[in-house]
TrEMBL record:
InterPro entries: FAD/NAD-bd_sf (IPR036188). This is FAD-dependent monooxygenase. GO terms for molecular function: monooxygenase activity. It comes from the Bacteria. Pfam families: FAD_oxidored. Keywords: Monooxygenase, Oxidoreductase.
Amino acid sequence: MGIGLPRAERTQGPDRAKRHAVVIGGSLAGLLAAHVLKDHADSVTVVERDRYPDGPEHRPGVPQDRHAHLFLKGGVDALEKLLPGLSEELLQEGAPRLAMPTDILQWQGGDWYRRTAASTHVLTGSRPLPEWVVRRRVLADPRITVLEGTEVTGLVGDAARIRGVRVRARGAGQETRTLTADLVLDASGRSSRAPAWLRAIGAEPPHEETIDAGLAYATRFYRSGPGTGELPYRAVYMAIDGRQPRGGILAPVEGDDRWIVLMSGFRGNEPPTDEAGYLDFAASLPHPVIREWLEKAEPLGSIHGFRKASNVRRRYDLPGRRPAGFLATGEALCAFNPVYGQGMSVAALCAVALRDTLGDPRRTPTTRRVQRAMAAVARRAWDISTGGDRAVPGVTGNAVRPRAVDRPVAWYLDRVIRRVPGNPVVGDAFREVGSLAAPNTRLFTPKVLRAVLFSPVPAPLSAPPLLPETPDA
Ligand SMILES: Cc1cc2nc3c(=O)[nH]c(=O)nc-3n(C[C@H](O)[C@H](O)[C@H](O)COP(=O)(O)OP(=O)(O)OC[C@H]3O[C@@H](n4cnc5c(N)ncnc54)[C@H](O)[C@@H]3O)c2cc1C
């Protein structure tokens, strides 16, 4: 199945037809994919139903952007490969960069993490910030056009080949028109309607897998206010998992003394969005450190809730009667329980996979080959988030049932997790994998295996480690 775009070396010559790629959705996954596609097509059109704000502001097409977003090291490294200098731009714009585990007061499953020397870093700026920084770089290229305030309403083509999309400007009485394209890439997020659009042109929608722990978020921005004082740590993370159905995050974001506070709960433990309920929820966390901070802090705006946060994987990588030239990326391909902080990083890693497969001189980039490469990237993150969520009591979905291989892996991971808070060898490997900076097999290297299988579970700390163990935190 040809992908619809010629290989770069065949794009020369006056007689060649102009090649056009359309990207559905101009959020992080769509922008990064457009940045890659511009080197393989004559022009790229990004169709985005929102009108972009001028700066790093909330927009309705990305309702989750009011909530805490961690940018993991693996994702930041991928961004840097695509857009060199971008991570420095993010820092310049004020994205806080936190050393892990050194800077973070972290509680998980009954244990405080030792604040040993840094093995990785995470960015904690607001969600609109990286999108804005990426947007201004990507859209500065004249080969990329964006149709703002315009939505895709369907696909054009048949089960054999994609020919374009149907688009309509938003607002009453707008006409639908066709935008022809040689390649269409769906980056419209977890609520993508592409499966229904594929059915409408006689193609097969992808099989959809779900695992839903019933996660709910409630988030508010704050200024630290008088009395909160200088903290001896830069963030607090009370982790939510199968053992602890409520969690919370207190983290700095860009701007003068701005913080984000997130309350999270699995099904039956949803955090309220009213003032009193929010504070009560914070008080119900295993340690009062966030609740005490909130008492002195000054709220900036209201509390926002979010409830659509299951793991959803669309198996575009499996064989099916789907058109050549149609691809999916980002959350339209695979959406995750957000407590693992993976979606933006997977969007960036998918764009790297797109770049590498389209540019591979040894292999023809068929639709299937390119899609499988992006799905393989998402799979690493999927295994982490669904592996964790399968242990959440009451989890639902058609992909919950463990496979035979999951049982020994779960046994091993349980030993890993109990050693992470106090054993730096295991903790560092776990953080690298969780940051998508190393393959999941990093947990099975000889040094880690030895520590996991033969070292005792470290004694838990009796109190939160208010100071880092290394002075150069
Ligand atoms: C509550 C929550 C918290 C999260 N926390 C984290 C985190 O800590 N770290 C992390 O890395 N990720 C996190 N994520 C995931 C992260 O938000 C996404 O992965 C990230 O936004 C990139 O996703 P995307 O570009 O695929 O889709 P989205 O960002 O969802 O964007 C989809 C875009 O498509 C547009 N669109 C939709 N339909 C159409 C249409 N028909 N026509 C035209 N345009 C259309 C929308 O307007 C939007 O711009 C979180 C997600 C949620 C829900």
